[in-house]
Amino acid sequence: MIEFESSVPGPQPAQNGMSMNKANDERDDDEMRPEYDLRGGVRGKYYERYKAGTNIIVLDDDVADIFKDSSSVNAALRQFLSEHGAPGPSKDQAG
Fold first, then answer.
1. What is the DSSP letter of 37?
2. 67 near 73, Cβ under 8 Å?
3. Vertex 12, ends 8 and 13: CA angle to 5°?
4. CA 64/CA 5 separation, integer angstroms
5. Which among 81, 80, 59 is positioned nearest to 68, based on CA atoms?
6. Cβ–Cβ contacts within 10 Å for residue 67, how many?
7. Per-residue pLDDT, 4
8. pLDDT of residue 62
């Protein structure tokens, strides 16, 4: 016979007062770290591209070994479409 223990939570272990986060008073200053210096950045550099959206398609490893960049994938797909026409809606797109 299998006995089950109660699902009621037991007492919490005592905390040692040590936190993994550094306390604010341990910081020497409230300045940004040098590696986060954004003074050379250009505001809105990729805004139009972001606004237009993206279309990310992940290739399986065996296919990615053959098609090394997006232009080779696009060329192969254009050739396929010229020979076979556009495919119908996929099961995911069907309502």
1. -
2. yes
3. 140
4. 51
5. 59
6. 15
7. 64
8. 96
CB atoms within 10 A of CB 73: 16
59 vs 76: CA distance, rounded Å: 14
d(C-alpha 82, C-alpha 79), whole Å: 5
- DSSP code at position 11: P
Look up residue 49 and give its amino acid: R
Per-residue pLDDT of the chain (95 residues; tens, 9 = 90+): 666 666 767 777 666 666 666 555 555 566 778 788 878 888 999 888 888 887 888 999 999 999 999 899 999 999 999 999 998 887 765 55
Per-domain boundaries in the chain:
59-86
